[in-house]
Amino acid sequence: MSPAPVRFHDPGTDAYRYRHSMLVRCPGCDRVAHLEASRMICRSCGRCGPVPPSNWPTLWLRAETRHGELWAYSLEHLDLIRRFVAADLRERAPWYEHGRKMTVVARLPTWVKSAKNRAEVLRVIDRMRRSVIEG
Known about the structure:
The chain is α+β, with helices and mostly antiparallel strands. Helices cover 24% and strands 21% of the residues. Strand 4 and strand 5 form a beta hairpin. Helix 1 (75-86) packs antiparallel against helix 3 (118-134). The chain is globular and about 50 Å long. The model has no long low-confidence stretch (mean pLDDT 88).
């Protein structure tokens, strides 16, 4: 008997849910910092203060693959992408629900959604997760 397929049900969230709290690269020490409500806090160098939206630091959780760049705002966002990529069976709510726009999972690039790239994408996601712990 074969094992049951790993299932993923799209929670229906959009990217704005993950933009309130982001992991960014500190411009002072080049390590991981936390950006929340236009205020950056770096535990490595102690840098703290407001950041104008026009001058936001780069995201910490980003990696280049042979297919393109993969990025996430936070560990929560990265976990959602990982659960989606790892799933054998991907379910979503029907499109006829009123007032719904494309979800963050539906907006992922095709190469991320492709089963043939699953192993590579999961390796990149795991590497990005480790960078937060080490960074």
